[in-house]
Amino acid sequence: MKNAYDIVPASFDGLRAAITGGTSGLGLALVGELFARHARVAFVARGREGVERTNRGQPRAHGIVGDVSRKEDIHPIRKAHLRGSRVIAIGTTVVRAIEAAAAFDGEVRAGEGLATQRIGSTSRLRVVDAMLSGTHEPGASHYELLGAFTDAKTLFVVNEELNAHDYRTHEFGDSVFIAVSARSR
Predict the structure, then answer these.
(1) Which of 76, 86, 87, 107 has the greatest number of C-beta atoms within 10 Å?
(2) To which H or E segment does residue 17 belong?
(3) Based on the domain organization, do 89 and 44 belong to the same domain?
(4) What DSSP assignment string belongs to 55-108?
(5) In the Cβ-directed half-sphere of 84, how many Cα atoms lie within 13 Å?
């Protein structure tokens, strides 16, 4: 029987990957490994210093600062939203942070704070149009957040398909692209 390492290709030429937390630990290791295998990599991290340090080590990397507390870091998101461009979040935590930054009137504002809101099927997303996410475990708050982007039937079908093929909810990390359905806007 083959082990998992037997099926990993030596080259990821042409693959595009997005990594959350790409400036330390496992995220940083993934950025380096994917680059070594010729993938095109974008990564998101909270601190500007870490993003700049990782970019120096991986000059072809596309680093994105995901800190909503600083005006200069949130400004590109606000600008994209105001001109009607699609705002795509990488991970459920980023969705919560951006939506919390626009909680009162839909205008994205920088500032310190906690994203304490629960986002789910009855939530109206003000800023985020799509996300790259894992599939998550039904019943968990991360899974419920997916309901703000699509209907329960679609989530059920995806979960059934994953179970039918013995996939685990986080087996592929943030590898599912999900956009807000017409029903949600």
Answers:
(1) 87
(2) strand 16-20
(3) no
(4) HHHSTT-EEEE--TTSHHHHHHHHHHHHTT---EEESHHHHHHHHHHTTTTS--
(5) 0
Q: What local confidence, expressed as pLDDT, does residue 146 receive? A: 93
Are 84 and 121 members of one domain?
A: yes
pLDDT for 156-177, tens place per residue? Answer: 998 888 888 887 766 666 678 8
Q: Of 65, 88, 108, which one is at a domain's C-terminal end? A: 65
Q: Are 56 and 80 in contact (CB under 8 A)?
A: no
Measured in degrees and rounded to the nearest 5, phi and psi for residue 2 equal -75, 145
Q: Are strands 16-20 and 176-179 parallel, antiparallel or unpaired?
A: unpaired
Instruction: Indicate the pTM of the whole model.
Output: 0.69
Angle at 184 between CA 128 and CA 99, to 5 degrees: 30
Domain extent for 61? 12-65
Gap between the Cα atoms of 94 and 45, Å rounded: 10
